[in-house]
Design brief:
The protein has one domain. The protein is globular. The chain has a two-stranded antiparallel ribbon. The protein is mainly alpha-helical. A hairpin with a 6-residue loop joins β1 and β2. α5 packs antiparallel against α7.
Length: 514
């Protein structure tokens, strides 16, 4: 604790390197190439958010092959822009159609669509855009202040500490996810098993390849992600029927002007949502969906008139959107400094860095300062671009909603096939994508969340590596995992989460039997 406090004091008070690093970051982020890819990322992300049924993770996985020939900084700027841009766009369909463009936007439907029915769609769209910008900007400030501190602190971590932290991240991802904790845990275990496929790092022997040479390097991350989240989502939408379409919607600038009461209700909800979303986003295994739902529950709890929620309360729109975007930006803190993704999308981001030979973790800031600070600076550039894209061009996004889904899904499937094939020029990877798509569709139908599987797949090899390294250094003594304060603390928290999940599942089963 004293070490963490000393690092915090040094970075916040005495160290001027932060300003110099930010200056370096803006030099990287304001180059013509970086601006172009940032604009491309946030625009594509907004489109993905507006069009229901495609999904952020699918798009990021689809664009991952496009970054192979790019500078790592430019590729990460574009992928990150898609991520937080989709959060902006997802609120548009939630408010106008009552159909969430992304999972975190689902809670926005509750009051956003009611505001549309009351003729206040313009105000709802305006406040969500401003709340998203404020939430994202605050989280960026936290990243600037705390990421270097966390990286300095993490340098002292041993292999046992990293194993314990990753185990906590995987447990949290399964037990805190929406749905059954036990189903989440089972999906994490399946992801760990899939991560074992390929060549053993220490012995060089093939394992679980079943005689397929194409599996010698392991399962393709893009094939797994696009199958589980892209193809399966398309199959789910086709089975459930076409999505509802917008008819005769017209949003004017005049209709976006909020009233004095709207502004008064805005600030409290935005502040609470931003703070809560930033905190939740920094926790491994949570993600923007949990942050949005928690923010909505908090607003309803502190409201003077809780009955207003679900009938068009502006706080029910502002707080989830602020928390959603704050969580997305804050999720980059553990991802970049510890190499531990907060959710499935962050896991794909780590995969993108690893493809370029860059390992996220405590050394990233010191070894690749241009990359780290360039990405941080690009977040602000991207959020400003999103303000420009979302407010003046709202009419264009509304028109996109008129595109029938029967036109969209063949194009998306075609792009998925091209994207997966282009990584290794392997038709086997394309076959794997559709196999995982069918499996993911079955998972969705039976309530098994796919996100914990992807996290288990990405963290599995790192978990195994640190586990074996810790045992090697301790001459096979398992007590090494409880002898250090850091690893012991995280293992205790993991145990508490597991016990809580088992107890809650048992109570739920007993209630259903009654």
């Amino acid at each position: 604790m004293w070490f963490f406090s000393a690092c915090l004091f040094r970075h916040l008070v005495l160290d001027m390197d932060t300003l110099l690093n930010l200056s370096l970051g803006f030099q990287q982020a304001l180059t013509p190439e970086a601006l172009l890819y940032c604009l491309l990322g946030v625009t594509l992300g907004t489109v993905v958010g507006v069009l229901p049924g495609i999904g952020t993770l699918t798009t990021i996985s689809l664009c991952l092959p496009l970054t192979l020939n790019l500078d790592p900084l430019l590729g990460l700027i574009m992928l990150a822009g898609i991520f937080y841009g989709a959060q902006y766009g997802g609120s548009i369909t939630s408010i106008l159609l009552n159909v969430p463009g992304s999972a975190p936007s689902a809670v926005t439907c509750l009051d956003g669509y009611q505001m549309t029915k009351h003729g206040r769609a313009g105000v709802a769209l305006f406040v969500t855009t401003i709340a998203s910008f404020i939430g994202g900007s605050f989280a960026i400030v936290l990243m600037i202040l705390f990421a270097p501190v966390l990286a300095d602190f993490a340098v002292s971590f041993s292999a046992a500490d990293y194993f314990a932290i990753m185990l906590l991240a995987l447990t949290a991802a399964s037990t805190l996810a929406i749905g059954s904790p036990l189903k989440g845990l089972s999906m994490v275990m399946l992801g760990l098993v899939l991560g074992l496929v390929g060549t053993d790092i220490n012995s060089g022997q093939f394992r679980f390849t079943f005689g397929f040479p194409a599996l010698a390097d392991g399962i393709n991350l893009a094939a797994l992600a696009m199958g589980l989240f892209g193809v399966s989502e398309i199959l789910t939408n086709l089975v459930s029927g076409d999505l509802p379409q917008l008819v005769n919607a017209r949003i004017t600038f005049r209709s976006m002007i909020p009233t004095k009461l709207d502004i008064q209700q805005f600030w409290g909800a935005c502040t609470r949502g931003t703070l809560l979303g930033s905190f939740v986003g920094m926790l491994p295994g949570t993600g923007p969906t949990i942050a949005a739902f928690m923010a909505y529950a908090l607003e309803k709890k502190v409201a003077v008139e809780p009955a207003r929620f679900g009938r068009g309360a502006i706080e029910g729109v502002v707080a989830p959107e602020a928390a959603n975007n704050a969580s997305v930006q804050a999720a980059f803190i553990p991802t970049m400094t510890l190499g531990i993704p907060g959710d499935a999308i962050m896991a794909v981001m780590i995969g993108g860095l690893l493809i370029h030979g860059i390992t996220p973790g405590p050394q990233l800031i010191n070894e690749n300062p241009e990359l780290f600070w360039g990405v941080v600076a690009s977040f602000w550039v991207g959020n400003i671009l999103l303000l420009i894209l979302n407010l003046p061009l709202i009419g264009m996004w509304v028109k996109l909603l008129s595109i029938p889904y029967r036109v969209l899904f063949p194009a998306v499937l075609f792009l998925i096939c091209i994207g997966v094939y282009s990584i290794n020029n392997s038709s086997f990877d394309v076959l794997l994508t559709f196999i995982f798509g069918i499996v993911g569709f079955w998972f969705n139908r039976h309530g098994f969340p796919s996100a914990p599987l992807l996290l288990g797949f990405v963290l599995g090899p790192m978990l195994e590596e640190n586990f074996r390294r810790a045992l090697l250094l301790a001459n096979g003594d398992l007590l090494t995992f409880v002898q250090r304060p850091v690893s012991l603390l995280f293992l205790v928290i993991t145990l508490v989460l597991l016990v809580t999940a088992i107890v809650s599942s048992s109570l739920l089963a007993n209630r259903r039997s009654i």
